[in-house]
Specification:
The complex is a heterodimer of chains A (536) and B (390). With 536 residues, chain A is an alpha/beta fold. Chain A contains 22 helices and 10 strands. Chain B has 390 residues and is of the alpha/beta class. The chains are: A alpha/beta (536), B alpha/beta (390).
């Protein structure tokens, strides 16, 4: 199946780099329909397989977006950006000391993407949608760029392309900040309804905090490639039950979130003498080694896949549709095992919509099972993220509530809560904000950990006019609070710190006070600019 | 008989290909026109005996198919075939229909293309031609799961009502342990091709060679005329095996100048054919009509043997409508008996598939009903406090 690869944000760029590199030089899957988008050029520097014309840097002219070249030391704002950048970077939190781009703020990411939509559209010319069967948007959903720009890109793709658009979204682990959890929870909320299917990748399961992201990336690469691997019609041996692109498409057509498993069992490889090889070359000897696997092997392999760690752990029985691919040397693929395995899946998942196919490969040295569970609806990790996000949002709202003195303003904001998402307006607002923003960032620069606040500020910026920000300048006072708030579990600390300055920033959270709630929703939903003037 | 054969979908195409292979190996000439129709480009590459220009890809311009199959969905298969019906009709134009006695449409009923596009193709053929149209359908095994069963149960209804006779093949009856995926399907298709070709090829030989016992195409067509579902039994004896009973007989016969296998042996062969695996297991006595074809060197087939076999089957099938005859194959080194049980009404496997299909349909409906709701509940928190980004 041909699949355009579209990476967004640091995690997206690195994963696409991996996928594109792993698929092979002739790009059998992507057909070189590859594009990566980021708000900071640093991740581009690490790519070997993605050509320059396939890289798009956006937001470099946007005042709120921090570029690496900016004088970070002199500008307080730069520091803040640095912090948030690392948050956004799922792949290399540990390795990247610089924080650039949209500073982990999905609102800013979305605003930047909307502003640069013409640029994005032009860049999408490198993707020929008649050459591919689907497109895969790859992004870290906890990051500002991945989530914000990714959402806008997804919206754009679904409106211009008829092909299915899938999303591969990395979910932050427990070790990552609450803000990233909050961003990711909202990211899931945003992309699932728009995308034809979403493959969340659970860092909690796959990423050991002490390690780099090699394990996650390899897992993702292996599974995505084995699912979408393209079979040329002429490649011998031909599969008996070919998994056609439409089989994958139909399995995923129910939408929702999907998850992948892949297990394999290595076969003993007999060393061949040169005579044997020569005879084989001459077609004199059909190399008929005895099969090492039988029905039981294949069945246990399927059982093993069901029990194994999925790319997103879930309750198997909540699956809607299933696709099973059995690969290996043709002589190893037992028909009985294949059928029993399939039947076992029907029992385990409780669904009858199971498509199964074989993928014979004479050169393979392992028998493998790839399992796609489509539209799983019982996913503890997503619920956990949501709980964390709510806690975070509530806490923020609480803080802002304490701080808030002007109730009338909040009330007015509340009215606007449910207004649609005028990102354009936000953009205008953000543009205007420049000065105020910088000051904010400066103040917050110390608070590397508290990306949350940054995010909120940005939201506020978007919604608020420059005037508002100036008023908010109190944020300078916040700096101490920000420091404390690294892991914003304690509402108390947050409250202390935020008192004066954080009003603007943290108004976003909807908490006990009804006033606050509106604030929160407004920024994300894209409140109207009108609110800001009122605040002022 | 002279046939125009059409394979629809992956299984249907492979079946037709195996039929051509068997024909070629045994010097028969049954399939005068061949056509395979598929929705997946990859599957069209598989046949080895079907000429390239007789392989039709449909749905390559269809939004849902695009030449990549129909994802096992019979409804999409039917839709695609309806959209491309003009193209299919155009290909049929090449078929000199007066040269053939009947049309055979082969399809796997568990998949999307065979189950959906098959009946559409048959509809069109019925409109275009007066010749009888026979269906040859592969029913999915129980292990293949609920979705294929649902496709098959629905498609079976269409097939049986639209064709003049439906010859069923049950995957379950033919599965054997130790096969690879590739071997499994290959062997089953070969078994089925052997039976179909041996049966239908009777009566195609030039008039001059035809003996008085010879089976005629019209006899076969008359037997199939009942409609409904039919099952085929088959047994063969290798005439050249030096250590076999038959070969001893052969020599003995030569010595005795009897020139035939004795009646008991012939009857035994037929009994074996009926009691061995039928293409679909069924109650023999529920058959409406029956027919026996003996294929092999005519010298080996005694008239008496044919008659006693016929009587035996008449008894077994509990019908007086039993025809028997031979299909002389002088070069053949085997003697084969094919038994056609036409319109069998007691086939447990069909009931099973229907039960499985009803379960599957209920499950699918249940899932459909709650799908949107469950997705929404997954992606939103309990109080819907988290807002989307865009």
């Amino acid at each position: 199946m041909r699949l355009a690869l579209l990476g967004v944000g640091n995690a997206g760029v690195r994963l696409v780099e991996q996928l594109h590199g792993a698929e092979g030089s002739d790009s059998p899957i992507s057909g070189d329909n590859v594009l990566v988008i980021n708000t900071t050029p640093s991740a581009f520097a690490e790519t070997d397989h993605i050509a320059d014309h396939q890289q798009l840097l956006i937001g470099d002219t946007h005042p709120d977006v921090q570029q690496p070249t900016a004088d970070a030391n002199t500008n307080s704002g730069s520091d803040e950006d640095v912090d948030s950048g690392s948050d956004e970077d799922t792949d290399s939190d540990t390795e990247s000391p610089t924080r650039e781009g949209v500073g982990g703020d999905p609102e800013l990411g979305a605003a930047v993407a909307r502003q640069e939509l013409p640029e994005i559209r032009r860049a999408l010319d490198v993707v020929d949608d008649t050459e591919v069967d689907a497109a895969l948007v790859v992004a870290g959903l906890g990051g500002g760029t991945g989530c914000g720009v990714g959402s806008v890109l997804l919206e754009e793709l679904t409106s211009i392309y008829e092909i299915p658009i899938y999303v591969l979204g990395v979910l932050p682990s427990e070790a990552e900040s609450d803000k990233r959890a909050w961003t990711a929870a909202r990211g899931i909320r945003t992309v699932v309804p728009m995308a034809d299917a979403v493959f969340p990748i659970d860092n909690e399961t796959w990423h050991d905090p002490g390690d780099d992201y090699t394990a996650v990336n390899e897992m993702v690469t292996e599974r995505i490639l084995s699912l979408f691997e393209t079979r040329e019609a002429t490649t011998e041996p031909l599969p008996e039950l070919c998994v056609d692109p439409n089989d994958i498409e139909r399995t995923l057509a129910v939408g929702g979130v999907s998850t992948l498993a892949h297990v394999e069992t290595e076969l003993d490889v007999e060393p061949e003498g040169w005579i044997t090889r020569l005879r084989k070359l001459l077609g004199m000897e059909a190399s008929r080694q005895p099969a090492q696997s039988d029905a039981t092997t294949i069945k246990s392999l399927v059982e093993c896949a069901v029990e194994s760690d999925f790319s997103l752990p879930c309750e198997i029985s909540s699956t809607d549709r299933v696709l099973l691919i059995l690969s290996g040397p043709p002589r190893e693929l037992s028909r009985k095992g294949f059928e029993v395995g399939r039947s076992l899946l029907e029992d385990e998942t409780g669904t009858v919509e199971i498509l199964a196919g074989d993928n014979p490969d004479s050169a393979a040295t392992a028998v493998s099972v790839t399992l796609l569970l489509s539209n799983v609806t019982d996913v503890p990790r997503i619920e956990a993220l949501q709980r964390r996000a709510i806690a975070y949002q509530t806490k923020k709202a609480l803080q802002s509530a304490i701080i808030e003195t002007d109730h009338t303003v909040e009330d007015e904001i509340a009215d606007d809560i449910h207004t649609a998402r005028p990102f354009d307006e936000q953009l205008v607002a953000t543009d205007a904000v420049d000065s105020g923003e910088n000051t904010d960032s400066a103040t917050e620069s110390n608070e590397t950990d508290q990306t949350d606040e940054h995010g909120f500020r940005f939201e506020d910026d978007n919604s608020a006019t420059t005037d508002a920000w100036i008023e908010n300048d109190e944020t300078t006072t916040e700096t101490p609070s920000a420091n404390t708030a690294d892991e914003p579990t304690d509402t108390a600390t947050a409250e202390k710190t935020t008192n004066e300055s954080s009003i603007a920033e943290e108004t976003t959270n909807e908490s006990a006070s009804g006033d606050d709630e509106p604030n929160i929703k407004d920024p994300f939903a894209g409140e109207t600019t009108e609110d800001e003037p009122r605040q002022q | 008989m002279k046939l125009a054969t059409i394979g629809v979908g992956n299984a249907g195409s492979k079946l037709i290909d195996r039929m051509l292979e068997f024909e070629k190996q045994t010097g028969r000439n049954l399939c005068r026109h061949v056509l395979v129709i598929n929705t997946a480009r990859t599957d069209l590459a598989k046949p080895k005996y079907v000429p390239k220009d007789r392989r039709i890809l449909i749905g390559d311009t269809h939004q849902k198919a695009k030449g990549h199959g129909v994802g096992g969905d019979g409804e999409v298969g039917a839709e695609v075939a309806k959209n491309d019906i003009d193209e299919i009709r155009r290909v049929f134009d090449d078929v000199e229909i007066h040269e053939v006695d009947a049309i055979l449409v082969a399809a796997g009923l568990g998949g999307g293309t065979g189950s959906g596009a098959g009946p559409v193709v048959i509809d069109e053929l019925q409109k275009m031609y007066d010749e009888p149209i026979y269906g040859l359908g592969v029913l999915p095994g129980e292990y293949e799961g609920g979705r294929p069963a649902l496709n098959a149960a629905r498609s079976l209804q269409s097939f049986v009502t639209k064709v003049d006779n439906f010859i069923a093949f049950d995957n379950d009856a033919w599965r054997s342990r130790g096969q690879t995926v590739e071997e499994g399907y290959e062997e089953m298709n070969r078994e089925l091709a052997t039976r179909i070709v041996t049966l239908l090829a009777a009566g195609e030989v030039d008039e001059t060679e035809v003996g008085e016992n010879a089976m005629d195409s019209s006899d076969i067509m008359r037997t199939l005329d009942t409609g409904g579902v039919s099952s085929i039994g088959y047994a063969s004896s290798d005439l050249e095996k030096a250590d076999g009973l038959l070969s001893k007989y052969k020599y003995k016969n030569k010595d005795d100048d009897l020139n035939s296998m004795d009646a008991a042996k012939i009857k035994g062969l037929v009994r074996r054919a009926v009691n061995s695996r039928l293409t679909i297991p069924c109650e023999v006595s529920s058959a409406d009509r029956a027919l026996i074809v003996f294929a092999g060197p005519s010298s080996m087939i005694s008239r008496k043997g044919i008659e006693s076999a016929r009587e035996w089957l008449e008894n077994e099938a509990d019908t007086v409508e039993v025809l028997a005859g031979d299909d002389p194959r002088e070069d053949s080194d085997t003697l084969a008996a094919v038994v056609l049980l036409s319109n069998v009404t007691d086939a447990p496997r069909i009931k099973e598939i229907q039960t499985q299909a009803v379960d599957a349909q209920n499950k699918i409906r249940e899932l459909d009903a709650v799908r949107e709701e469950e997705i929404t509940s997954l992606i939103t928190d309990d109080d819907n406090e988290l807002d989307p980004i865009v």
